[in-house]
Amino acid sequence: MSDSPELTRRPEWTALEDHRRDALPQPDLRDLFAADPGRAERYVVHVGDLRIDYSKHLVTDETLALLQELAAATDVFGLRDAMFRGERINTTENRAVLHTALRAPRDAVVEVDGENVVPRVHAVLDKMTAFADRVRSGEWTGHTGKRIRNVVNIGIGGSDLGPAMAYEALRPFTDRSMTFRFVSNVDGCDLHEAVRDLDPAETLFIVASKTFTTIETITNATSARSWLLSGLGGDDAAVAKHFVALSTNAEKVAAFGIDTDNMFEFWDWVGGRYSYDSAIGLSLMIAIGPDRFREMLDGFRIVDEHFRNAPAEANAPLIMGLLGIWYGNFHDAQSHAVLPYSHYLSKFTAYLQQLDMESNGKSVDRQGRPVRWQTGPVVWGTPGTNGQHAYYQLIHQGTKLIPADLIGFARPVAELSDELKAQHDLLMANLFAQGQALAFGKTAEEVRAEGVPEEQVPHRTFKGNHPNTTILATELTPSVLGQLVALYEHKVFVQGAVWNIDSFDQWGVELGKVLAKRVEPALTEGADVPGLDPSTAALVAAYRNLREV
Ligand code: F6P
């Protein structure tokens, strides 16, 4: 198979290479701002409640225009429209990509193979609403008649990260009288810690799995059922009151022993990493209530509509996607940091890792030819203030270019005490200070002017020019969370479209799954597994020996 030729030979691509070499060989943000102070206002885009400032990027009007030309030449908006129309743009799996239909209004029409899927989406939302209300009100009781006070979501990947992230993000909106836990790891410690202090009679398990074949989830769900039954006297009938399923696979759900009346459905046109606004969000809906959940869907929709209708030069996901391409493909940046200045967004970057890296971690194009350009970046980060005392050193003074998104909110969370609310200005001062320090650094002259001894000057100089985006919103509400997630979903889409890769499959996770199944009998039974490489065979032998000691 020959290499995929198109992208890097396009005149729009080579124009960007020329521009990088000739116009911005050593871009300096101090100079760029001095030459064009208006960029502070001009390079800001508003979408919904989000104010996105991209003025601290290594770009000029010309760079942005050239990037827009690349987007036009690669027909990003054409693919976008095909996605919204329900075409099968996930070509390797021959599936439509319609997470946007999950937040479409009741009267919208989105067709897949001639069928309007919106009524089905709302039927499931209504079923979720009725169930969530019953659990929240205490009407849905466990097998012994006790009220449900604990909800344990069992899932992995997209069936865990989304609801777990959003539960954390929206904690102030959750029912604090209930306990919510999220179990994903096949390491038995995860389930053990999640249930060890819970009363089975008050515990509801939500088994979340699109395929209902994922070994981690089915293993944990099986163990959870044993835990439940042993705590409730072994009556199998208890399962019906303590287990519900979120899946596309009714057959497997029934085979597991969960009544399909207690199954909340979604469809193959919802990718796992794009699914927490589907039935996969049931645990979140129970936590925050159906009304808040719908507010979150409204937030997603605001950004969907923006992505669909805003002109290219004011289209936030397009701009963010193109800036990522500018660094990854024309500055050789390898990673992208997402740094929320909000404790409640502590799981946001982990969520984005799957969204971005499972979508765009690809090395062949849509036609199956090896690509000759970089695709998705390594996405990483933790809440900003903590990061400042850990890895920011490397961003500021290391040798790598790491574009970053700083995310913050104007208002602290309502339920904080006045004293804790007062800390919010300090939190945000850190965000603004970091954005400034990353972009503009500190020159040797400035360091000298402080009387620093000459031999120390190089150590205390910050070269700056670390590009960063500041995303500011009033408050972290359900709607704003939906807006943020949709913003990144569509940013990832834009990049995949330009790179001509299928952002919606994930074949790269299959090999490990297959090999784990093959290796397991060697561990459990000492079975001779044909085809084990010598290193792995030695590791398996060492493991078995150590286990016996
Ligand atoms: O990691 C691969 C993957 O297929 C993800 O895409 C998905 O989110 C996760 O496994 C869980 O899959 P399922 O929901 O089918 O259990």
UniProtKB/TrEMBL annotation:
<dbReference type="GO" id="GO:0005829">
    <property type="term" value="C:cytosol"/>
</dbReference>
<comment type="similarity">
    <text>Belongs to the GPI family.</text>
</comment>
<comment type="pathway">
    <text>Carbohydrate biosynthesis; gluconeogenesis.</text>
</comment>
<comment type="pathway">
    <text>Carbohydrate degradation; glycolysis; D-glyceraldehyde 3-phosphate and glycerone phosphate from D-glucose: step 2/4.</text>
</comment>
<dbReference type="Pfam" id="PF00342">
    <property type="entry name" value="PGI"/>
</dbReference>
<dbReference type="InterPro" id="IPR001672">
    <property type="entry name" value="G6P_Isomerase"/>
</dbReference>
<protein>
    <recommendedName>
        <fullName>Glucose-6-phosphate isomerase</fullName>
        <ecNumber>5.3.1.9</ecNumber>
    </recommendedName>
</protein>
<keyword id="KW-0413">Isomerase</keyword>
<comment type="function">
    <text>Catalyzes the reversible isomerization of glucose-6-phosphate to fructose-6-phosphate.</text>
</comment>
<dbReference type="GO" id="GO:0051156">
    <property type="term" value="P:glucose 6-phosphate metabolic process"/>
</dbReference>
<dbReference type="GO" id="GO:0006096">
    <property type="term" value="P:glycolytic process"/>
</dbReference>
<keyword id="KW-0963">Cytoplasm</keyword>
<feature type="active site">
    <location>
        <position position="389"/>
    </location>
</feature>
<dbReference type="InterPro" id="IPR046348">
    <property type="entry name" value="SIS_dom_sf"/>
</dbReference>
<dbReference type="InterPro" id="IPR023096">
    <property type="entry name" value="G6P_Isomerase_C"/>
</dbReference>
<dbReference type="GO" id="GO:0097367">
    <property type="term" value="F:carbohydrate derivative binding"/>
</dbReference>
<dbReference type="GO" id="GO:0048029">
    <property type="term" value="F:monosaccharide binding"/>
</dbReference>
<feature type="active site" description="Proton donor">
    <location>
        <position position="358"/>
    </location>
</feature>
<dbReference type="InterPro" id="IPR018189">
    <property type="entry name" value="Phosphoglucose_isomerase_CS"/>
</dbReference>
<keyword id="KW-0324">Glycolysis</keyword>
<dbReference type="GO" id="GO:0004347">
    <property type="term" value="F:glucose-6-phosphate isomerase activity"/>
</dbReference>
<dbReference type="InterPro" id="IPR035482">
    <property type="entry name" value="SIS_PGI_2"/>
</dbReference>
<feature type="active site">
    <location>
        <position position="513"/>
    </location>
</feature>
<dbReference type="GO" id="GO:0006094">
    <property type="term" value="P:gluconeogenesis"/>
</dbReference>
<keyword id="KW-0312">Gluconeogenesis</keyword>
<dbReference type="InterPro" id="IPR035476">
    <property type="entry name" value="SIS_PGI_1"/>
</dbReference>
